[in-house]
Amino acid sequence: MAFTMHSHSGEFCPGHAKDTLESVVLHAISAGYHTLGLTEHMPRTELSDLYPDEFLPSPEASLASLFPRHEAYLLEARRLQRLYSAQIHILIGFEGEWIRPGCGPLIQTLASAPCVDYFIGSIHHAGGIPIDYDRATYHVAREACGGSDEAVFEKYYDEQLDMLVALRPKVVGHFDLIRLMSDVPDMGADEVGDGAVWARVVRNLKEVVGYGGWLECNTSALRKGLAEPYPGRAIAEEFLKMGGKFTFSDDSHGTAQVATNYARGLDYLESLGVRELWTLERVVADDAESDVKAALVEKSVTIDEFRRTLKVPA
């Protein structure tokens, strides 16, 4: 029962991803996925939230397009969920964008939509500045947060804690994304600085375990040149000591990235002693109305079973 809990399309994430949402669904079916979590990025509310590739035709026009695009995404996701229900189990979600505390109420409002099953709790900013777009932008964030990798890591994990406490997301996205553009991206979080970063990591992991959240093992780190998926080994080992559970994601941004590096990601988890992964299943009563949320059941999938159902080179 292969799956991903994190995916994007070029249709609803233009400039950042490729391909239509339907083509992503069809490719996931051909790859042997049993479950596909659709998680386009949520709309943002400030011009300062935009990435450089969103400045055209104008920042104002790009910002104004985000909420209508989100509504169009939900409609198309619901159509595809119905159309392909016999071939794949589609979960409808979105990727939360915690940039400042004021994002919390918006995320909760978006999550309340009847068709939305879950959202991913993610951090892509520190001090309001993107940390995963490119090195130059990361350096701006680093300077704004104190001028060192250690300082911007501390800021990132403090803001991540704010998100975890406020929203308690079932799926915590790319927990240690902050390392992507850092000076030594493959350094363990326990090796950064004098221990202040690691203390924050452990604190945040305890928060996730405490409310029953899952970390995603996100293989996009591997296609971006990192040695290990998100989260890195030190974090993953600490999370497992606490009894934490993993879900699994390709974080694909188009059909070409569906199931990318899945074999390496599964090998990584097995090297940590992980034997099962967790996903969600929608349970819908036959007489349920469209404006009633589906119930969700947590499901475990063994890594062996995951591998057996995967149909593409991973």
From TrEMBL:
Q: Could you provide one GO biological process annotation from this protein's UniProt record? A: L-histidine biosynthetic process
Pathway listed: Amino-acid biosynthesis; L-histidine biosynthesis; L-histidine from 5-phospho-alpha-D-ribose 1-diphosphate: step 8/9
Keyword Amino-acid biosynthesis among record annotations: yes
Q: Where is the PHP domain?
A: 5-220
Q: What reaction does this enzyme carry out catalytically?
A: L-histidinol phosphate + H2O = L-histidinol + phosphate
- EC assignment: the record states 3.1.3.15
Record protein name field: Histidinol-phosphatase
Chain segments annotated as coiled-coil in the UniProt record: none
Q: What is the lineage of its organism?
A: Eukaryota, Fungi, Dikarya, Ascomycota, Pezizomycotina
The record's comment on protein family reads: Belongs to the PHP hydrolase family. HisK subfamily.
| Keywords on record | Amino-acid biosynthesis, Histidine biosynthesis, Hydrolase
One matching Pfam family: PHP
What is the main EC category here?
hydrolase
* Organism encoding this protein: Cercophora scortea
State a GO cellular component annotated for this protein. cytoplasm
One GO MF term on file is: histidinol-phosphatase activity
